[in-house]
Amino acid sequence: MNYRINNLHRPIDSKPEAYEAEIEKITGLKAGDYTWRRHRESVDARKGRTMRFTAAVDIITDKKVRKNKQILPVKEAPYDLSPIETTERPVVVGAGPAGLFCAWVLAKRGMAPILLERGDAVEDRVKKVEAFWETGELDPESNVQFGEGGAGTFSDGKLTSRSKDPRGRTVLELFSRLAEDESILYKKKPHVGTDALRKVLVLLRKELEHMGAEIHFRTALKSMAKDKEGYLLTTNKGDFRAKYVVLALGHSARDSFFMLHEKGVAMEQKPFAVGFRIEEPQAAINESQYGDMCRFLPAADYSLTAKVEEKGVYTFCMCPGGKVVAAASEEGGVVTNGMSYKARDGENANAAVLVTVDHTTYGEGVLAGVEFQRKIEQKVFAMTKSYKAPIESASSYLYGEETAAVTPTYKPGTFFADLHTIYPEELDRALTAGLKDMGRRFPALIEKAILTAPETRSSSPVRITRDSASLESISHENLYPAGEGAGYAGGIVSSAIDGMRVAEKIIEKEKNHVRN
Ligand code: FAD
C-alpha cells in the first residue's frame, strides 16, 4: 500500500533521514518495513517560530500502519497514455513547453506529430545566443525567445505553477526523470536552471524522435490556408499538410500574429505588463529572508506586490543568483529578462518589476499591444543604436540620490540613463510608487539595486481565441491555439499543461472520427 504522511518536520541543519524517526513513531513501522520519499517539502520561515523544513512524505509498505489523522492512502490515477489507431499526423508549430508537451502526448498516444520550429536545435541555439550577448549580433530566428525549448530555455527554469491541474505532476515527472533530479518532484518551488534545461531538451528530442515524431528546425510558419483536405501550411522550407494544426507560438511570434490576423483567425487583445529588471545583492536577500539560517539554505527568493492606486505593480520571475539577459527577438529593439543556472550561485539576484498595461494606454485594435511593446523596445535601441540597455540605480530613480549599487550583469553592455523617460507617464508614476512601496516593506529589494530597461515580454499581448470546451479556434475548425502565445498560459509548467490538454482534445476528436 502507498500512504502519504502529512505535516512532518525536521531542523534546517538536519539530513532528510531525520524524517524516519517521525515516520516510525506515527505509523508504528520499523526500519526495513517500508520505503519512503518526499512528496512535498518547504521551509517554514514564519515569523516567531524556529525555522524548519516541513514535509509530506509517501511511504510504500506491505505491513499494517496505525490509524492516524496525518496518514492518508495515496490513490493517484496514472495519466492516460493509451495509444489510438490512426494515420493522422498533426502539425505542431513551435517547440516551446506547449508544443513539446503537446507533441509528447500525441506521440505517446500514436499520433506521431510533425513539429515545426523556426529556431535552431538547442545546441546551435546556445551558440547563437551567447554570440549575441558577446557581440550584439542578433539572429532574429534563433535567440532567447525562439528555438528549441522556447522562451524559457534561457531562464531560471522555475517549475512552479498556480494551476492545480493534475497534469502538472506528469510535467514535473518528465523534467525530474530527464534532469535526473528528484527534488523537482518534492520542492515547493522546484527549479532546473538553464544549464539543466538545455540537457533535458536534447533528451526530450531524442525521446520524441524515437516515438516517431518528426522535428524540423529553422522552419517557420509563414502562411496558412484551409481547404477540404485540411490545412496547407507554407514555411520557408516548403509546404506541410495536416488535418489538425496546433499553434504553440509563444508570446513573441509577432509576424505570425499579424499573419493569422490577416487570415481571419479570431484573436483579441489582452492586458499584459511592462517594466524593468531590478538587480540587487543575493546575500542581502538571503539575510533578509532567512537571517542567520541563510548559511544552511539555498539562495532565497521573493515575490512582492505593491499597493498602488489604479494599476497593479508587482515583482515577477525572480531569478536567485542569476543574470539579467538580453532577450530581443526582433532587430532594432532592446528587451531584458532574467535567467539562472541550476546552482543559483551568482552574486546578484534579479526580478522583473512590472506594471499592468491595457488598451487605456495602448489603444484599441487587436495588435495594438504588440505595437506598444515594439515602440518601447525600438525607442531604447535608438538611444545607442545597439542592444545595450539603459540602467539607473533604484535610489536615483526613486529619490534622485546616487548610492553604491551592484554591477549590472546584462550583456552586451549598459549605459546610464534617466529611466523615467522609457514609459508613458501613467505607467512610470505607477512603477515609481510601486517600487517605493515594496522598498519600504522589503528594503533589501532597493538598497544597492540597479534597474535595467525595458522588460516588455513578460506575457502575451494577444489571445488567439478558442472554444473553452473543444479548445479549437472559434473561427477555424481543427486549429488549436496553445500555450502562452495563445493567451491561455503563463510560465513553463502551465504552458506544458495547456499543450497536453490540446493533445487530448485532438486525440478525442480523432477517436470519435475513426469510430464514426
Ligand atoms: P514559447 O516557449 O515562447 O515557445 C514558442 C515557440 O514557437 C518558440 O520556440 C518559437 O521559436 C516558436 N515559433 C514562433 N513562431 C513560429 C513560427 N511562425 N513557426 C515556427 N515556430 C515558431 N517561465 C517559468 O515558468 N519559469 C521561468 O523561470 C521562466 N523564466 C523565463 C525567462 C526568460 C528569459 C523568458 C523569455 C521567459 C521565461 N519564462 C519562465 C516564461 C516561459 O518561458 C514561457 O511562459 C513559456 O516558454 C511559454 O511556453 P510556450 O510553449 O507557450 O511558448
TrEMBL record:
Residues 271-458 form the FAD-dependent protein C-terminal domain. It comes from the Bacteria. InterPro entries: FAD-binding_protein, FAD-depend_C, FAD/NAD-bd_sf. It holds the Pfam family FAD-depend_C. Residues 144-165 are annotated as: Disordered. Gene3D superfamilies: 3.30.70.2700, FAD/NAD(P)-binding domain. This is FAD-dependent protein.
